[in-house]
């Protein structure tokens, strides 16, 4: 069971902010920084960049302060006997960089909302959100490396997935995050496991599958809606990705009580 004593997102403090609790809290404290900050770690004050997370266990010394200018963070103080908290592999009192800070920030926003209202499924919702947050923290902690372009690449990928029909080019994508096209291709594949243009294609085919599961548009209309200016090119690329032509995919999907998952390869 988990009990939240207080949770806040985008908490803003002046440049002279200091948080000093020598004996710690009698409960857990999780802090996610949005600006640079200094933390007391291993007997000395250390500087950390923005987008770091730090988990303090009950009764652990807590000391952190603003580093330069305004200090902003998300934080939650809570009690829990759940194993995903009490037996976590996360370090105590040692900040580590976040893999996807925007995702974690959204979880904090939802935790604030759920904690503010006494609704029927409040406890269950809070538990799900907190479990997800701890999963994201573990993913971040065991991430091998977070490059200087990491957060820009996440935003670029989100833009691709949200708008796959845009006429994306490598040059345009590289310009968006102010790096060379060659370097973009190198670090994009290293981070996501596929090239940026392959990611565009995957996103377009995924969208095309969704259209084909319904009977609203012709193949030509779907091709256009997915960013293809040439229907033959769309059909050829769709078959390469799925093993089926768009028309056969649509026919098969129409005959099924539920369409195949996006990740499923349809072979006809």
Automatic annotation (TrEMBL):
The keyword Zinc-finger does not apply. Keywords: DNA-binding, Transcription, Transcription regulation, Transferase. The keyword Transferase applies. One of its GO terms (molecular function) is transferase activity. Residues 154-252 form the HTH araC/xylS-type domain. Residues 245-268 are annotated as: Disordered. This is HTH araC/xylS-type domain-containing protein. It comes from Paenibacillus illinoisensis.
């Amino acid at each position: 069971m988990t009990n939240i004593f207080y949770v806040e997102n985008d908490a803003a403090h002046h440049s002279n902010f200091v948080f000093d609790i020598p004996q710690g809290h009698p409960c857990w404290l999780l802090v996610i920084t949005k600006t640079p900050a200094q933390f007391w770690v291993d007997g000395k004050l250390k500087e950390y960049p923005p987008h770091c997370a730090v988990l303090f266990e009950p009764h652990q010394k807590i000391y952190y302060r603003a580093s330069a200018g305004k200090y902003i963070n998300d934080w939650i103080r809570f009690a829990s006997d759940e194993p995903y908290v009490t037996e976590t592999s996360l370090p105590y009192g040692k900040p580590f960089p976040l893999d996807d800070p925007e995702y974690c920030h959204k979880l904090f926003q939802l935790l604030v909302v759920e904690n503010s209202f006494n609704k029927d499924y409040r406890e269950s919702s809070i538990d799900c959100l907190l479990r997800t947050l701890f999963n994201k923290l573990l993913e971040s902690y065991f991430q091998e490396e977070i490059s200087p372009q990491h957060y820009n690449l996440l935003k670029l990928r989100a833009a691709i997935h949200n708008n796959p029909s845009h006429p994306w080019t490598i040059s345009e994508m590289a310009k968006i995050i102010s790096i060379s096209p060659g370097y973009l291709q190198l670090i994009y594949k290293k981070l996501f496991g596929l090239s940026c243009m392959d990611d565009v294609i995957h996103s377009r085919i995924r969208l095309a599958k969704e259209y084909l599961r319904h009977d609203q548009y012709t193949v030509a209309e779907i091709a256009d809606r997915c960013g293809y200016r040439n229907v033959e090119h769309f059909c050829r690329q769709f078959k390469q990705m799925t093993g089926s032509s768009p028309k056969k995919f649509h026919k098969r999907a129409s005959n099924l009580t539920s369409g195949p998952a996006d990740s499923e390869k349809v072979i006809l």
